[in-house]
Specification:
The protein has helices at about 15-20, 60-65, 70, 90-95, 115-120, 145-150, 150-160, 165-170, 170-180, 185-190, 190-200, 235-240, and strands at about 10, 220-225, 245, 270, 290. It is mainly alpha-helical. It starts with 7 loop residues before the first strand and ends in a 15-residue tail after the last strand. It binds heme C (3 copies). One heme C binds next to α3 and α4. One heme C binds near residues 79, 91, 158 and 159.
Length: about 300
């Protein structure tokens, strides 16, 4: 399978370019406290560590990596998530976790103390258990930025196909697909960020330059095209609209302007002639008008860093 070199570059190298590109801006260090203010729990992942899924292995090797898991996860339509018997994988090849521990006695009731003790040992535990509502595996309503604050080990456990970790779970067999998919519009959201930022006068580039991508540890990443050299496109590709480089979304910390990214917000109620403030009650008590998501009547907000 064709393999291209890794095309992610840490955001710090982009900073200089972004500053030139977009006024005086500094990319902020990623926040260390989760959205709900939860402080990360220290986790020792050595017992649940799993090497990247191998391209080939024996059936016995693979079965050993599922042994403990299937004492609880008993029924499944495809143990390897692939119908084809040609794909030989164990659970921990993709998810990580400790397959050496399992239920010794099938009469142990689900959710009982001894059951949960085994589960805790077998599973990869999150660093932000409250934000994920651990031990429930139901996804939180919005896991968006939470994903960037969680450990890659837990991300791999809960979703082995997340691009932050897909190289480990799927890369041995699907690397070229992963690399192409990471650059796709569906992953970068370039059309949303490009359209909204150009149309609202935040960025003067009509050819999109902003797109989302993240490194394994949740840092914003720059994506470059797979051209020769990387980060270039041929004139023919450029004609078709291929883009050479996408930068992460910048944040403004040097000069605090009004909240120019307000246009992306979810809408809310307007307080007459004041700048619309999501979630603040109307001080005059009069009935507020609803504002549609993404279409603020007033583009800026009075909010911003003090
Ligand atoms: C003691 C029983 C038990 C063992 C052993 C066990 N699991 Fe689980 N697992 C569960 C239960 C129960 C849930 C659902 C928890 C809930 O939603 O309340 C779960 C949930 C999960 C989830 C979803 C977690 C999330 O937060 O999204 C994954 C993935 C998973 N298990 C994989 C594994 C793998 C891989 C192994 C082996 C390394 C394993 N499990 C071993 C009982 C077990
Ligand atoms: C080829 C890699 C691969 C293998 C092998 C694999 N899984 Fe998964 N598993 C995935 C992916 C990808 C998902 C989807 C995650 C998502 O949608 O967020 C998933 C989903 C799950 C979920 C639901 C997770 C959730 O968040 O609700 C459970 C539970 C689970 N797998 C358990 C297992 C068990 C047990 C085994 C071994 C018998 C296994 N998986 C083998 C890749 C794999
Ligand atoms: C050991 C090698 C291997 C690993 C690791 C692996 N796959 Fe696969 N995958 C295959 C093979 C081989 C096929 C083709 C199977 C067939 O044709 O029936 C396939 C097919 C697929 C398909 C179906 C594609 C299609 O065209 O229908 C999807 C989706 C997929 N894999 C997703 C994943 C994901 C997501 C992961 C990682 C979480 C993963 N695979 C890990 C070998 C692997």
């Amino acid at each position: 399978m064709a393999q291209r070199t890794l095309s992610f570059v840490s955001v710090w190298r982009n900073t200089a370019v972004i500053i030139l590109l977009l006024l005086a801006s500094v990319i902020g260090a990623s926040r260390l406290v989760a959205a709900g203010g939860e402080k990360p729990v220290y986790r020792d992942y050595s017992a649940v560590f799993a090497a990247p899924a191998p391209e080939a292995q024996t059936k016995a090797e693979a079965d050993a990596k599922s042994a403990g898991c299937i004492t609880c996860h008993s029924a499944s339509d495809a143990l390897t998530m692939h119908k084809s018997p040609a794909v030989v994988l164990g659970c921990t090849d993709c998810h990580g976790g400790n397959a050496k521990v399992g239920l010794s006695d099938p009469s142990i009731k689900m959710d009982s103390k001894p059951y949960m003790a085994v589960l805790e040992k077998a599973h990869v535990l999150p660093r932000l258990p409250n934000s994920w509502h651990w031990p429930s595996s139901a996804n939180p309503q919005r896991s968006y930025s939470l994903l960037n604050q969680e450990s890659p080990e837990f991300i791999r456990f809960t979703n082995p196909s997340d691009y932050r970790v897909a190289r480990e779970s799927c890369g041995a067999c699907h690397l070229s697909v992963i690399e192409a998919a990471e650059r796709s519009l569906m992953a970068t959201g370039a059309m949303l960020w490009g359209g909204a930022s150009y149309n609202n006068g935040l960025v003067k580039l009509k050819n999109y330059a902003l797109g989302e991508a993240y490194t394994r540890d949740g840092k914003p990443a720059k994506i470059v095209s797979p051209g020769e050299p990387h980060g270039t496109v041929t004139p023919e590709q450029a004609k078709r609209g291929a883009i050479a480089v996408m930068y992460p979304l910048p944040s403004w910390h040097v000069i605090p302007p009004g909240d120019i990214f307000r246009v992306f917000e979810r809408g809310g109620r307007n307080i007459q002639t004041l700048f619309a403030e999501v979630g603040l009650p109307n001080p005059t008590g009069s009935i507020q008008r609803l504002e549609e998501p993404g279409r603020p009547d007033l583009k800026q907000s009075s909010r911003g860093p003090a």
